[in-house]
Design brief:
2 copies of one chain form a homodimer.
Chain A: H1 11-22, E1 27-30, E2 33-36, E3 46-53, E4 64-65, E5 70-76, H2 82-92, E6 98-103, H3 106-121, E7 126-131, H4 151-164, H5 169-181, E8 183-191, E9 209-212, E10 223-226, H6 230-242, E11 252-259, H7 265-281, E12 285-292, E13 301-309, H8 314-319, E14 322-324, E15 328-329, H9 357-379, H10 381-391, H11 396-416, H12 421-436, H13 438-452, H14 463-481, H15 491-506, H16 511-528, H17 540-545, H18 552-563
Helix pairs in contact in A: 2-3, 4-5, 6-7, 9-11, 9-12, 9-18, 10-11, 10-18, 11-12, 11-13, 12-13, 13-14, 14-15, 15-16, 15-18, 16-18
InterPro entries (chains A, B): DhaK_dom (IPR004006), DhaL_dom (IPR004007), DhaL_dom_sf (IPR036117), Dihydroxyacetone_Kinase (IPR050861)
Protein name (chains A, B): Dihydroxyacetone kinase family protein
GO molecular function, one term (chains A, B): ATP binding
């Protein structure tokens, strides 16, 4: 949805006022658009670009030194009027003619075309150029009918750099046309955008589907398919562009991975890993790639990939310095052409303290127990997430699965290497903390690590050590987090568990029976957390969120306690 | 929704790989986070920041010269683990101690706190600092319990600049704590975010409602209200922050207007206009304000406002150069502290050619006709939008309303000033084109302007001139757009209208009867457009979209023709 506006019909104009206010260093407002705020010398070709609003940073965000001289900005998704195009262009003109750039849409073609005619009547040399990079919008043999999308940025950047370098209009136009001929874009969309004041999206993509080749105003795409994974989407985008390598193209490409509005930077970075690998596998060198929002469509969900095949003329222009609200390239940095970032290898521990045969056998039992635990928590992941979402951020199930899965793997590796009980449990503890992160990760890691310190790699573990370990886990967790019983944390379940376990062991019960009694108590206590009144304290941030709900941490603690059957086989 | 991922549980790590690949100039990947790619001298205090993922550019985007030395990044919405915080911090350390910054969340407090203890054990001087800027999360008298949101950026930027300037750890910590004490944020949310792999949003805001003070992980806010206009939201945000001006605060503030993910730049710019006006009215000077995405929450819809009250110590640090993926401030630009952008006044025409009494009377009739037309199009706006949305971008109704309303106002102004028929219609034409923009704007503007050229400000208009004007409008529109009957444009209705009008007038019918016959023909033709097979040609981009649907332009032309009753009163 588009929510922030006072009057829908002044949305675009209000946005331009705000933009020029914030970016007063680079742009200033004029009727119908924006001009550079910085002085521009007479005799420089003016690059004037434009189109409808709703696509920020297109087009006002492209204005600044090294890039465009002015942008003419229409209403949302509507071409600016002929009169405003003409008046903005006249103000930007510095006596050396104008390159007039816009996407290839009917309204823009009409208005920019009429403005060009009028400007010629004013005695100004004008070269209109409609950008045609969207391969989904017309077949390869009819490129002149294609729409302009994120390729606008690449072509206008190159034209702007050529103009800034003092090239005459003929050259600026030739280079811009060359860049346009070498630029291809292809995109997918997951959901439509909503015009300011509209109550429903302009168009819809069915839930679970993605629209391949959909235009930035919702123009029909090529087909709809179920939503694919990032690697598959990367393959789709890359393949379609590599199917249409322009004539005389080399191996160096400018790349723009563009988000349409609600598809976030982190998603684009995930997609980039796969896109970059495919492009590099195809032998291409990726020159100063851009990943972010460069041609949006209000709050549309989706993304597009743009390639501009460079050559010795175009590459320096793509890399040349510029200073706009969107894009700042310094004089010394353009030459970075990235290579793949190597994977960060996990540092794996491979040696363990010597263990007795009996302790190594218990280590294997602990590893089996961690595997049971991980399986149980994975099964409960959604339910734990739902409980957590009522009061917290809903990721408790995911965190517990991540942590326990990593812990089980680490414990298995340690046990396989012959480690003893203390080392196996310690390995599980560290892996849990590292991989789970968050509050539950640090608490579980600390608790298991503390418990492991009551065990040994030599002497077989007995029931007293297990009870002592549980007690030490509780003590270290409460010391760290400051939570007391009643604060609605896992301590609400852990505390009665530890008390029952210790009392039962002290009373001479075998470990299996003592553990069963303690688990039952933990489960009962976790059910009761919904009725607790949270108290203020160091843990009060969590406590306050959970008023009236079961605490997910207590529930998962109880679940874990009930699951670790392997421990029950310990000799006692 | 979060759509782009391969495996939900590697989303955060994959995003960091992609981020470091794209931004290899400034950052490099390490286990658990990112480090500066640029050399940092021994003896500089290290600023190490971090927290969960899902908040990009927080925290990895803050790393670079003049800002943070490293970021530790956990899983989505989950604190990084103690071990990774420690290992990243050790790598960033340059022998002068570490400022360790994070938002005040339970998991972060635990993990960063434990890491700080361990680092002290390693012999490194570490100062942990939990950011507490979110005024919605706890009362003013309990600031230590507040959460950290976009104020992280302000505090870390200031700390980073202090460290870069060579200040010792005591000073960096003092300045960072001062900045935190002077920083306040307040936000609203319109809709929740979706964790990677989740099928439903983490939390929901009821449709039409906004959640005031909602946290960036969905922590409960203060209250829910119906969604307000931008000016009212601005007032809410500004007032809440000005209610809590920190002690010893002056009149100069750093400002961050932050989008949470799916609230777009243009919306933020609209909101900025109102926010900036209120802050300036309160006597504040806005120093290098930032409007954009600086602390997101995946794809959450909403925004927050942050103020940091500056003084002679803090302001130079806020303005100091930095070079990160998020924020680039050059050495010479920080001193801009913006003032309000003046409104751009519409240039209004005030003098008209002399008109005869009869023509001035007809001018008033034309103005009345334009008012009828604007009212009719406004009533039909939603319907025209729906028709257009089936094949186009759904803004036809809005464009026609904007254009005809402006045309009616301009015609009224001209008629009131005594202009003749030709001038009134010409004024309407220009206003329509300027205000409507887009394809329909240029076409209607051109058509009305052409028609006006067949009228006069002297001799009263007769039926022949009206028919000639309609013919000239058709000719100029087809010459401009290249559309022929059957291309599914307004020409499909205009062409039969003009032919019928001319034939009827030629046959001696009075204008009223001829116009009525022509209007009927236009309406019939507009209904028939759904059955047309669009042809390729200059208008084919539009034509292809509209296969199987009525053409909105033809429908609105027919509606307009049927509405202009005032013309029928012309003497014939």
């Amino acid at each position: 949805m588009t929510h922030l506006f006072d009057k829908p019909d002044t949305f675009a104009a209000d946005a331009m006022r705000g933009y020029c206010d914030v970016h007063a260093r680079t742009v200033r407002l004029t009727q119908g658009g924006v001009l550079r705020a910085t002085p521009t010398p007479q005799g420089k070709v003016a690059v004037v670009v434009g189109g409808g609003s709703g696509h920020y940073p297109a087009f006002a965000g492209y204005v600044g030194q090294g890039f465009a001289d002015a942008a003419v900005t229409g209403d949302v998704f509507a071409s600016p009027s002929t009169r405003f195009i003409r008046s903005v262009a006249v103000k930007a003109h510095r006596g050396a003619g104008i390159l007039l750039g816009y996407g290839n849409y009917a309204g823009d073609v009409l208005n920019f075309g009429m403005a060009a005619e009028q400007l010629r009547g004013d005695g100004i040399d004008v070269r209109p150029l409609a950008i045609t990079d969207d391969v989904a919008s017309a077949p390869a043999d009819n490129q002149a009918r294609r729409r302009g999308v994120a390729g606008d940025l690449a072509v206008f950047k190159i034209a702007g750099a050529a103009a800034e370098a003092g090239k005459p209009l003929d050259e600026v136009e030739r280079l811009a046309r060359l860049a346009n001929a070498r630029t291809r874009s292809f995109g997918v969309a997951f959901a439509g955008c909503t015009l300011p004041g509209a109550e429903a999206p302009l168009f819809a993509v069915p839930p679970g589907q993605m629209a391949i080749g959909l235009g930035i105003h919702g123009e029909p795409g090529i087909e709809e398919t179920p939503i694919l994974g990032a690697s598959e989407i990367a393959a789709l985008l890359v393949q379609r562009l590599l199917d249409e390598v322009p004539a005389q193209a080399g191996q160096r490409v400018a790349v723009i991975l563009n988000g349409l509005g609600s598809t976030k930077h982190e998603e684009l970075f995930v997609l980039w890993v796969a896109v970059a690998a495919l492009l590099r596998d195809a032998g291409l060198t990726l020159v100063a790639p851009l990943v972010g929002e460069f041609m949006t469509s209000l709050d549309m969900e989706g993304c597009s990939l743009t390639l501009t095949w460079l050559d010795d003329e175009l590459e320096p222009l793509w890399l040349a310095p510029c200073d706009t609200a969107t894009l700042r390239i310094g004089a010394d940095e353009g030459l970075v052409s990235v290579e793949a970032v190597p994977d960060v290898a996990e540092e794996e521990r491979t040696s363990w303290p010597p263990a007795s045969t009996a302790s190594a056998a218990q280590g294997r039992l602990i590893a089996d127990g961690m595997a049971f635990l991980a399986a149980a928590l994975a099964s409960a992941e959604d339910e734990l997430g739902r409980i957590d979402a009522k009061a917290g951020d809903g990721d408790h199930g995911q965190g517990m699965t991540r942590g326990s899965t990593a812990a089980a793997a680490a414990a298995q590796a340690a046990a396989t290497a012959g480690a003893g009980a203390a080392s196996v449990l310690g390995a599980a503890a560290d892996a849990w903390a590292d991989r789970a992160g968050g509050t539950s990760g640090v608490i579980w890691g600390l608790g298991l690590r503390s418990a492991s310190q009551c065990l040994s790699d030599e002497a077989p573990v007995d029931a007293g050590q297990v009870a002592a370990g549980a007690k030490k886990a509780l003590d270290s967790i409460t010391a760290l987090g400051g939570a007391k019983p009643g604060d609605k944390t896992l301590v609400d379940a852990l505390d009665p568990f530890v008390r029952t376990l210790s009392a039962s062991v002290d009373a001479g019960l075998p470990l299996a029976a003592a553990w069963a009694a303690a688990s039952k108590e933990a489960t009962r206590a976790s059910d009761a957390t919904a009725r607790l009144t949270p108290r203020l304290g160091r843990a009060s941030i969590i406590a306050e969120r959970s008023r009236g709900h079961r605490d997910a941490g207590a529930v998962s603690l109880a679940l874990a306690a009930s699951t670790i059957h392997a421990l029950l086989d310990f000799p006692t």
